[in-house]
Amino acid sequence: MADALERARAARTWLERLGARIPGYKGYLERELRREMDQVLRSELAGRIDRARDGVRAFQRQLRLDQSGLLQRLSSADKRLDQVANVLRHAGSGYAGLFDAVKVREEELGTLYRFDLSLVDGVDALVAVAVALDGEAAVERLEQQLLDVGRQVESRDSVVKSVLGDRGGEA
Description:
Elements: H1 2-10, H2 14-19, H3 25-62, H4 68-90, H5 106-131, H6 136-154, H7 156-164
């Protein structure tokens, strides 16, 4: 994540670099950059979850029709994967902007980044399970991992609110 942030900083135009020298504007640019990176991260995670859906569907195609219980569980998992990916895709992006009443401090951003990195680990584990499906035990692991990741994705708003405390706002 830090490498991506540094690459984004390096890719700024000369006008953005000039604006970064104006008092107050540099902080605005950094927050906007974080907003963009937050959206990129969530888009990437949603894409990874789509790859997990591909793994589920590939395994479904290998099953026989007399395995209807397993087919139904996989269909439910596919729908839940789609829901989780869409929550990530369509969540509010970024951190408080220049004119927002709420300002997010660096230490708060660190907490949010750590949460996001743990989410990356969870999604990667989910994808690993989904693409290696080979039987009922693997489907059970998929369901548990999906439950864990789904809860984590849905708890992001709570994490943001706890980081911001009574100040409110969107992260």
